[in-house]
Here is the input.
Amino acid sequence: MDKTWNNKAWFMVLPMLLLVAFSAVIPLMTVVNYSVQDTFGNNQFFWAGTDWFSDVLSSPRFHDALMRNLLFSGIILLIEVPLGIFIALNMPRKGLGVPFCLVFMSLPLLIPWNVVGTIWQVFGRIDIGLLGYTLNALGFDYNYVNDPFDAWVTVIVMDVWHWTSLVVLLCYAGLVSIPDAYYQAAKIDGASRWSVFRYIQLPKMNRVLLIAVLLRFMDSFMIYTEPFVVTGGGPGNATTFLSIDLVKTAIGQFDVGPAAAMSLIYFLIILLLSWVFYTVMVTNDAKG
Amino acid sequence: MTVSGNATAATQTTDAATAAMARRTRRSNAIARFSFLVPVIYIFLLMLPIYWLMNMSFKTNSEILGAFSLWPRDPTIANYMVIFTDPAWYNGYINSIIYVVMNMVIAVTVALPAAYAFSRYRFLGDKHLFFWLLTNRMAPPAVFALPFFQLYSAFGLIDTHIAVAIAHCLFNVPLAVWILEGFMSGVPKEIDETAYIDGYSFPKFFVKIFVPLIASGIGVAAFFCFMFSWVELLIARTLTVTVAKPIAATMTRTVSASGLDWGVLAAAGVLTIIPGALVIWFVRNYIAKGFALGRV
Here is the structure.
C-alpha cells in the first residue's frame, strides 16, 4: 500500500510512545546506570567503568548459561519445527475436524506459564505423576529431580508440549492458502507425495516457517518461568538458562552491577535477533 | 512397420505410466485414510498432562499420595471449595483479572491510533519506531524485573494493580500495535478517502466507520493482550506483595508454606486454564495470526 508522508501522524503515536517509553526506557537507563557503577552499600555508588562487562564476558558461569540456552533453543527447534510441519500436513482441511483441531491444539498455548511448569512438575514426579510413574514401572530409571539428563529431557518435552502447536497453527495457515489448482496440476503430472511437499507445500510455507522459527528461537531464548517451576534451575546448575541465572544474580544475590552488565549483554543479543526478525517481516510484507 | 512399432511402444509406455500413477494414487489414498490419526494422537498426548492435573484436582491429598489411579476413585470438590472460600486464594484470581483487564483496555486504547498511523502514513522515524516496538516485545522480562521494582517503588506504586497493568504494557502494547497494523493494512485506503470526501471528520470516521471494519482485529488484539498478561508471572510477582498478588504467585507461595497440598494446587491450576479455554472458540481462526504478530 502506498502511504502518504505526514509527520502529524506522530500525534497518533505519541500516547503509545510515552506509555511504552515509561516502561522500557527508564528501566533500561537504570540498568545502564548500574552496569557501570559499584557500591559498598548505603546507596553510595562509584564509577566502575566497563569492569562488570569484562567480568561477565569472561565468567565461565555466564558462558555456561549461554551455552545451555543455545543448546536448549537448538534442540527444541530441531524437534518442534519438523514435528509441527508433519502434524500440519496431516490436519484435515475442511469439515468439523478443523475447529476441533484448532481449539484443542491451541489449548496449551493459553495456559499460564507457571501452571505449565506445575503440570509437568506433577506429571513427571515418580510417585504421583503419570509420566514418571509409568516410566519407572517400565523399568526406566527416570527422576528429573536429581538426574541432570532427565531434567533436560523433562524441560525439553515440556517445551515441545507447550509450543509445537504454534508451529502447527502457523504452518496450517500457510497450507490452507494454497489453491486447489496447484494440487490438481500436480496430480495430472503424476507428482509423488514428496515432490508435492517439496515443490508446492514447502515453498508456500516458507514465510510462516521463518516467522515460526524466529518466534520460537527468541521465546526459548528468554524462557524463565516453566523450567524454574519444574527444576528451579537444577539439579545443580544443569537447567539454569540465561534468564534464571540473571534473576538469581539480580534478586537472589542482589549483585546489581554484574546483573546489569549481564542484562545489557543479553539485551544486545536479543536486539540483534529482533533486527533479523524485523528484516524478515519487512521483506515478507513487501512480497505480499 | 517402424511407425506402428513406435506407436505401440509409446502406448505401452503410457500404459506403464498410468499404471504407476494409479498405484501411487492408491498408495497415497491408503496413507490419506490414516492421516487423521496424526492430529488425533497429537491431541491425545497434549491432553494427557492436563487430564492428569484435573484428575488430581478431584482427589484428596491422601488419595493422591496413597494410591496410584488413573481416575479419582472417590471424586471430591473439596479442593475447589478451599479456593472459593479462602480469600487468600480467590483474591488471587480477582487481582489477576483486575490488572489483566486494565492492561487490556490501556494497551488496545493507545495501540489503536498508533497502529492507524503506522498502517496509513509515512513519517519521520516510523520504521525505527516500529522496530523499537518489536524489541520490547522480544525483551526478556528477567532484564526488567529489578529496574521495574525500583521504578515503581519510586512512584509508590508497588503492590497496586495499575503498576502491573502498566508494566505489562511493555510487551502488550507492541503486540497490539503489530496485530492491529496487520488487520488495518487489509482495509483498502479508498475507504478512508471516500469518507473524507463525504465530509467525515477524522474522529467521526475513525469511530463510526473504521473501528467497525476492524472489529475482529480489535477482538484478536484484546484477546492476546489478555492472554499474555494472564500467563506472565515474573514481572507480576516482582511488583506485588499481598494486596495485588496474582493467582500465579499465590500458587507458588502457598505450596511451599503449607507443605505439599497437591490437590488444591491442581485445582488452582485447572481454574487458571478456564479463561483461555472459554474464549478460545471465538478466536480459533486468528490464533496463528495473533501469535505471529498479525503477519500471517
Observations:
- The mean pLDDT of chain B is 84.
